[in-house]
User: Fold this.
Amino acid sequence: MNSKPLALIVDDEPAIRELLQLTLERMDVDSTTAGTLAEAMQLMQSRPVDLCLTDMKLPDGSGLELVAYIQQHMAQVPVAVITAHGNVETAVEALKRGAFDFVSKPLDITDLRKLVNTALKLREHREPGAARSMTRLFGRSQAIEQVRGMTAKLARSQAPVHISGESGTGKELVARLIHENGPRSDHAFVAVNCGAIPTELMESEFFGHKKGSFTGAVADKEGLFQAAQGGTLFLDEVADLPLHMQVKLLRVIQEKAVRPVGAAKEVPVDVRILSATHRSLVELVHTGKFREDLYYRINVIELHVPALRERKDDIGLLAEHILERLARAHKRPALQLAPDALSFLQSYAFPGNVRELENILERALTLAEGNLIRAPDIHLRKPAEASTAPRIVAPEPELDMDDKTIPLGSYLGDLEKEAIRKALEQTRYNKTAAAKLLGMSFRQLRYRIKKLGLE
Assistant:
């Protein structure tokens, strides 16, 4: 790899080319320029480049054509398009076609420098073995191979990605792999379950707050966007966001800035947004429960993670990996799955997908004699168990509305703490069982335990 990267600048305006060249020169990046689409293609054929910056409108074509050409012939080269101010539709189309990112006119030099620095980090991921973590997506089926390939491709982009799929399929793992194999891997990956945050605390959680902005705000606090600065923010179960937060999230994505609660000014943020849900966003848009404009901003590219029943040939490999991990955790010798046990598992529909397979094997581990799990050791959860399980419900708070000093957030937090404590005690601190009692997912419970300081 050359010590000094080379960028191709494509624009028919000499002043813009000169500005970009000067900016890159100050960043110790060499550059070459082209004024037309044809000239750009000719230059790229004769000399390899590490980055391409192209205007959307060219005398003999468009930047979209150049994006398509680069994707077809040299997909490892990140290409960023320069769009007219406010032309969101064109920018989104460029991202769908494979553009790394976009920047709007008039050019903001700070934003441009961030884009170039991020794009050039992709050179590190061209080295052999750079995507080895992709093997954490276990399986050899065609369905999971497609997910692996798409995940690797999306890691090289800055486009917002929406990951769809049923609960337990591994959507968060896919999001982590996109982050880890991309140019933001040296910054934070912040995952948040949108359905686990109380509505009245959402704005503070996402955007932060200033000291004294509300009762209980005893110090400044950074939000999730600030925590993910330079990295990736993963919005799990994004469909659970209430409409008022959808409006605020849309503004943050558009303006790339947040306003902490109680602050007078907005704070710039540089994060990549990944989202996921097991629900159909299209249906929610049609019923008015999810904003259409937000849908198009977070769903620039959709990646579907298949259900386990759609890749049953992978069950054996997944089970082998899970059993290895469980054996290490329980300090037991290596465990094996008998042929009748594997056939039994492959005949099951797995409504809870890979997460359910993990729970089933963990239960089987305690019942198995020796180091071989047989079919009789496997106990599948009956569908009725989920609906008949008792739930612990915290009482509704009875507040004296004449007393304006009651910190509502703290009061609700104490009630929630008590409910979680009771559930954990009742289940002997089995978090999976406690989550079922509380009527929430394991991930939601884990988030609330950490948030409330119950660890």
Notes: The chain has four domains: 6-126, 141-304, 310-381, 388-451.
